[in-house]
Amino acid sequence: MNIFWAVFLGIVQGLTEFIPVSSSGHLVLFQNLIPGFNQPGILFDVILHLATLTAVFYFFRKTLMMISKKYILLLGVGTIPAALAGYFFHKQFVALFGSINALGIEFLITGLLNMLVDSAKTVKKTISLPDSFAIGIAQAIAIIPGISRSGATIFTGVKLGIDREKVAEFSFLLSIPAILGANILQLIDYQSDAIIHPSYYLVGFMSALITGYLSIGVVYKFIRERKFRLFGVYCILLGFLTIIVL
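and the corresponding structure tokens:
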């Protein structure tokens, strides 16, 4: 680890955590394509996730201050599928992070989901409990590297007929318990990492925080202007490239 990798990984985490292109898929891809690249230690990974979590809190600070009990219940119901999947299949999911098999196909699936978001007819202004559970199932499936969490949840929401911006907001807020839960599982398995200079944690955190905050705005812009297909094109091209090269 050096300062370059700390900044690079922070930027990648900040961008891909919320832009629907799969942060976990990109990490697996980098491990297999970039000479000398090693997955950072658990503590550094937790720091980057805390940065993107901070970005969500800051971006939605006004919404969170006025959040209703009903909305908290919706988030709780939406969290259940991923929580169960993470608890019971944690080791299996961890094994997937070291595998390149099927990653290209999963990027293609994410690309297809993104391509279909723009054409969905959305009429519902509110999210029901069954809606939140269905979106939660999509989030659980997206634990698989290459399947984007934000892409899968937003696609599911708009296909249920929910307003695009409402779905995007729900997806981002649903990431709060998801990120916290993932970090807790990582810390449970934590063993001492190689020593990293404290400044690397700081620059990684700041890089992920800034790019994470900006990427939330980008997703909102693209979903308003119905340009989600651009994320789809990127993922499809990346999927074919992964299949051909690897």
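(Above: one complete record from the training split.) The mean pLDDT is 89.
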